[in-house]
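Archive maintenance. Older records in this collection stored only the sequence; we are now back-filling the structure field for every entry so that each record is complete. The fields below show one back-filled record exactly as it appears after the update. Entries are processed alphabetically, and M23 family metallopeptidase is next in the queue.

ARCHIVE ENTRY
Title: M23 family metallopeptidase
Organism field: Streptomyces lichenis
Length field: 293
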Amino acid sequence: MSAPGHRTSGLTWAIRLLWALFLAQVAASLLVDRLPYPYALGWLPVALAGLLAVVRLRRDRRVLVDQAPPAVETLPAVTGTWTAMNSPADRVPSHHTHRYAQTFAIDIVAEGPDGRPRPAFAWFWPPARRNEAFPAFGAPILAVADATVVAARDGARDHLSRGSLPGLLYLLLIESLGRTLGGFPAVFGNHVVLDLGGGTYAAYAHLRRGSVAVRPGERVAAGQQIGRCGNSGNSTEPHLHIQLMDGPDARTAHGVPFTWHGLGVPKNGARFTAPAPEQHGRPGAGEQADRPG
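Back-filled structure field:
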């Protein structure tokens, strides 16, 4: 899949021309006492450039989705009862961005084994909770197919939850900025990337510090535990972020659609129960399925 923007498009040239026009008139205003048109009109190129940038962004998003390869079927990365969040079954890109190949990514949170729900969002108190209060924290994370480990990180800390209004404001206004500047490792936290074969890679994010049980170059079997669910990186609570990509480096790869064997693609808010790997078939690594709608 070729990314939009590898060749400079007409829209991009138009945006550059408008900015050049704006800068030229700024320079001209320093050389003459008065421009031969109203001051407000001088901002018209900036407004048009902004409008064209929005049009280009919407076009590029559509291209990335339309040119995506067929969905790849894998096993689920967990067992037990979980709830889907930020699912590509409801919205693409699922996380409002194509950055770091997150176009078709999904977040899942665990529900308690006795039906007890995870802690609800608190408006003011408590401002944060310890990770142990969430059923997902420490849950086993499994290889979705027979694969080779290409990347593994295990040193990032698991921070407190951000499941309150003060915590969320801190995340959005302060922490997210720092993590954005820190790049991919700061956003994904502890993570593992697996080569599933056939040009497909699986990336797992926000794993628990000290739990990553694999190293680059190792072979893993479908259903093998590779780590535990944590709350590292850009995360509001313990959960698993998982995505498929067409390359080993999320900074340059594109997202690939997925479907889980026996489950499909859970919708936002859908609760699902993933059986143990031995209780259902094992799709071959890189096996393609019909693309989910």
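Update note: The chain has a mean pLDDT of 81. The first helix runs from residue 10 to 31.
Entry marked complete.
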